[in-house]
Structures are given as C-alpha cells and as structure tokens.
Amino acid sequence: xxxxxxxxxxxxxxxxxxxxxxxxxxxxxxxxxxxxxxxxxxxxxxxxxxxxxxxxxxxxxxxxxxxxxxxxxxxxxxxxxxxxxxxxxxxxxxxxxxxxxxxxxxxxxxxxxxxxxxxxxxxxxxxxxxxxxxxxxxxxxxxxxxxxxxxxxxxxxxxxxxxxxxxxxxxxxxxxxxxxxxxxxxxxxxxxxxxxxxxxxxxxxxxxxxxxxxxxxxxxxxxxxxxxxxxxxxxxxxxxxxxxxxxxxxxxxxxxxxxxxxxxxxxxxxxxxxxxxxxxxxxxxxxxxxxxxxxxxxxxxxxxxxxxxxxxxxxxxxxxxxxxxxxxxxxxxxxxxxxxxxxxxxxxxxxxxxxxxxxxxxxxxxxxxxxxxxxxxxxxxxxxxxxxxxxxxxxxxxxxxxxxxxxxxxxxxxxxxxxxxxxxxxxxxxxxxxxxxxxxxx
Length: 442
Known about the structure:
Elements: H1 4-15, H2 21-32, H3 39-50, H4 58-66, H5 69-78, H6 111-118, H7 122-129, H8 134-137, E1 146-152, E2 158-164, H9 166-178, H10 198-202, E3 210-217, H11 225-234, H12 239-249, H13 267-278, H14 289-296, H15 298-310, E4 314-318, E5 321-326, H16 328-332, H17 334-347, E6 351-352, E7 358-360, E8 367-368, E9 371-372, E10 378-379, H18 381-397, H19 410-424, H20 426-436
Antiparallel strand pairs: 1-2, 3-5, 3-6, 3-7, 4-5, 8-9, 9-10
Helix pairs in contact: 1-2, 1-4, 2-3, 7-12, 11-12, 15-17, 18-20, 19-20
C-alpha cells in the first residue's frame, strides 16, 4: 500500500470516537464517500487488537492498517477506486480504558479545550509544553520554565532539583487538583498521598522478624515523557491533548545548567547526570511529579504486593523507598526474594540502589525512612539526642548560635522537627516541646 494520506484518514475514523464497529463504519463511509464491504471486518479486527489497551497513537493505528492483510487485499483490488471524499473535522472523543472510565476526570477533547481549561492561550500552551524541545538549547535562563539547583549525593552522584517558575507551577497545580487528585493510588503507596505519611509507611513493618529495605536510583528522572503521555492517553485523552499534558509535566534540562555547577563531584558524574536529565522526564520539584510517579507505578506496586503476599509479607512504598517485612517464611527466602524484587524493578524500568539495600533481622536496629521499627515505632536515639541538644543550646545561647546553615525560617524548621517527633512518639515529643517553648525568638 502506498497512500499514506489514506492511511491517516482511516486512522482518524478509528480514533475519533469510542471503539465501536458501527461508529467506525459510519465515519469511514462519510470519509470514503461510499460503503465498502471490507471496512466492517477491518473495524472488527481493529477493536480486537486494541480493546482494553491504552488508547493508541495515530502512528500505531497507521502501522496496524499497513500490516492488515484484509486491507492489503482490498487495496490491490480497489486501489483505482479508493479516494478520500471528505476530511473528518470532528475532534477525537475521550476513550477511557478499563477502570479509568469510573474516574471523574474532566473531559478535554482538543488542544483548544485544554487551553481554555487551563485559562491560557493556545500559543502559550505550546510554549509551556515545549514538545519540540526548544528550551533544551536555549542559553538564556529567562526563557526557561525552571530554576535549577544541583546537590551532591552521598555516593558521589548528582541530584538535580528542578523548581518550576510561577506560571508553569500554576498550570501544574491545575493538572494536579483537576485531574491527578481524582485518581486513586495503590494501597501500598504512602508518599505524597493525603491521609498517609511516613508513619503509615512504617507501621505495617513494626515488630516483624525480618525487614527488607530497598531504594530506587534516580526515581523521578526514570519516568520519561513517553510514559507520562501514555498515562494521560490511558485516562482517555486524545493524543494531542495527552502529549501537551505530558509536556507541561515533564522537562529536559538545558545544557547551560551543567556549565556552572556549584557542587564538587567528579567529571564522570556530571556527564552521567547530563545524559540522565537531558531527555524529557519528571522534574523533582514540580507539584505534579510525585502524583504522576505514584500513578505510573501502579503496575509495579501490584506486582510487588502480589510477590510479598506469596510469602506472607507486607509491602509498602514511600516514593523511592521500598519496604518488605515478614516472619519465618520470608526470612528463609529473603535473598532469593530480594533478587526477584530487583528483577521486577528492572522489568518496570527502574534501577536498584544496591548500596542502600538492607536485610534487617531482630538482632539489629530495623529502621525505615529514619524511623526504628523493631518492637514499636520510634525515632532514632541519635536523632532525638541531636535535636534535644540543639534546642537546649538555643535556650542557653540563643537560636542564632545553632542556625549554622543560615536557615531563613529557623523557628519553623525546628518546630517542624519537634512536631515530627510528637507524631511518632508523643512522650518524647512532649519533652522536646517543653524545651522549644523556652527558646526566646527575636
């Protein structure tokens, strides 16, 4: 077959509305100007190929049409009679998949509707989404949408904080509250979820015989733009809308960011980070990134929860921290179990930070996300003693003497740390609160 325009028109017939044979045939009849007997079987084969799958891109439908033997036979027989009589101008409709049909997400079926929903002009929408990657090559920070801050990790690599500027951040918050917050996450997820916290993350693992802690490497950059756009198509959004939503929520770090780094790391680490962040990814610092990461990890969480259930274990996840715990059944299989977990993570597109993997039995301190989980949940003694010493010195010498990192809101910073201890261990938290209330703040 050698008519790409015909393939695109037929693809629009399949994608314009719900995957229904009668609707597809009706649209095909209008586009081709007459009824063709081969169109109904073709529509049936299309629905069989794409039912219960993520809404396909137009290129995927064109590829399907090019390889369909029935259409090839029709083309060889009627190529002289086939022509496009009418261009279908109707917008593509929402096509939610499976359980996504029950989610109360807004219906947005065109780029104009998306711009109106976000309260911006269509040209601004293209600029913020930057699907062509123009921002990657721009040398002026004023033309970019993000502020950047590089931090050195303990293993010598780089973590890049990408904070969106005010206008882009507003659009991302609209997407967060208007779309993402309406979608349920997996029960095992406790990070960045309303009514869940680090305490609920650790609670299922308290008092267990063995605790396995694993950490994902480069968590947010692991989510590429194509994966985010596929997620929005799963919600039912047409390809053009899903691509723009994905563009607003992802970023490709410009080359200029790596020229003047303020961190002392090896050159090889800089090159690794530059390659990692150069492709569009979820930026750590955007309000939409934690929610999208949780939702895009749903299949991973299902697989890990199922694996844990096979050995009577518990599984929870807080962002890139994974925790498993169980009794004798897990302890006997802990090493092959961790290998199986790593294999699943690899299949799902993640990398394990093996330097942070811990298999903790009762004879050692079992800690997760900074909390002790041996017999009852508690803060680490060293953390408590350190905070108590800081507060005591604040009372004796003044808070300015302890603010060595020049924290701009030091009172709120310490108050937050005290509140955290109160949440985990009310008795210890009360002791720190009494000291905190004796500090004289200017």
